[in-house]
Amino acid sequence: MADQTLGTLHSFLQKNNTQTSSGGTVVSYSHDTGSGPVLCAVHGYPQSSYMWRHLAPLLKDKISLFIPEQPGYGISSLPPSYDKRVVGGLVMEALHRVFGKDRPVIWCGHDRGARLGHRLLVDRDPSHNIQAAILMDIVPTLVQYQVFSNPKASVAYFHWPFLATDLAPTMLEAMGGGYFCNLTLKKIKGGNEEGVKRFQADYAWDHYSHQFNNPECIAGSCGDYKWGATGEPEAQEADQKAGKKVKVPTLVIYSAANLGRMHNVSAVWKDWVEGELKCHGVEDGYGHFLPEECPEVIAKDVLEWIEHVGKAS
């Protein structure tokens, strides 16, 4: 059932096709509780909004949801630029068209979606109205590239420099984007057997692999990684020199068995967040795809953080 979407899986979600100022379309799913903040849940690589399928039902009665298809990943239009300011701006434009501009936003991003949020959080455009953040299984892009001096790290994250090359789209199309996607999912999945079953549930791997057979998805996702190699590290270095930090309350959730083995995640983020920071390393062998592998754990973290920042505001 590769054609099943988040919307057909959960009838409480409304599908939106939002025309943006770029001339393209942002596809999203939303659920409105009627008031209060909006949780903007943005997927990463190599996925789609479908990755939130386990989490959305656990959150829908507590907070409004905006779940976009990240521009460039085969469902929303290709963005005019892969600069994360541009892509993030398109997501926020679509959110404001659906919910209006007055609702406060809590950014909740996984993987590349978290990196998109990190850029917006540092830029602090007041029109975005982002009041708090949840970043899943990342350290800043600059830090991740710096650790590639460790041969084991560069092998584990080989796809980063590969996808950033001009040859990558042609090579993936020749190999088969869906085949490469499936290999990537197998390589990065966690070691908890029950978690892997939940990750694969609802034909999810078929869904993601089907999506990556789309040449636009290949081009767009490679464009994302190319900007992550050629634009974002320099921008982050300049931010750090200028003292530009994340200043909203930020929760970082990460896989202790995955990211936590390579980085002291809490120590890293203390140098990038000036506001309140909480870090939670998820144990029990759960891997990178936390919202799918252990949704109950992640839902508990997310709801507790929403309640906390609501009381603090």
Which features would summarize this protein structure in a list?
Alpha/Beta hydrolase protein; 313 residues; eight-stranded mixed sheet; alpha/beta; Rossmann fold; hydrolase; 17 helices; hydrolase activity; Epox_hydrolase-like; AB_hydrolase_fold
What topology emerges from the helices and strands here?
Blueprint: H1 6-9, E1 14-19, E2 25-31, E3 38-42, H2 56-59, E4 64-68, H3 84-99, E5 105-110, H4 112-123, E6 130-136, H5 141-146, H6 151-156, H7 159-163, H8 168-175, H9 177-188, H10 193-200, H11 204-211, H12 215-230, H13 232-242, E7 250-255, H14 259-262, H15 265-270, E8 277-282, H16 290-293, H17 295-312
Parallel strand pairs: 3-4, 3-5, 5-6, 6-7, 7-8
Antiparallel strand pairs: 1-2, 2-4
Helix pairs in contact: 3-4, 8-12, 9-11
Domain AB hydrolase-1: 37-292
Family: Belongs to the AB hydrolase superfamily. Epoxide hydrolase family.
GO molecular function, one term: hydrolase activity
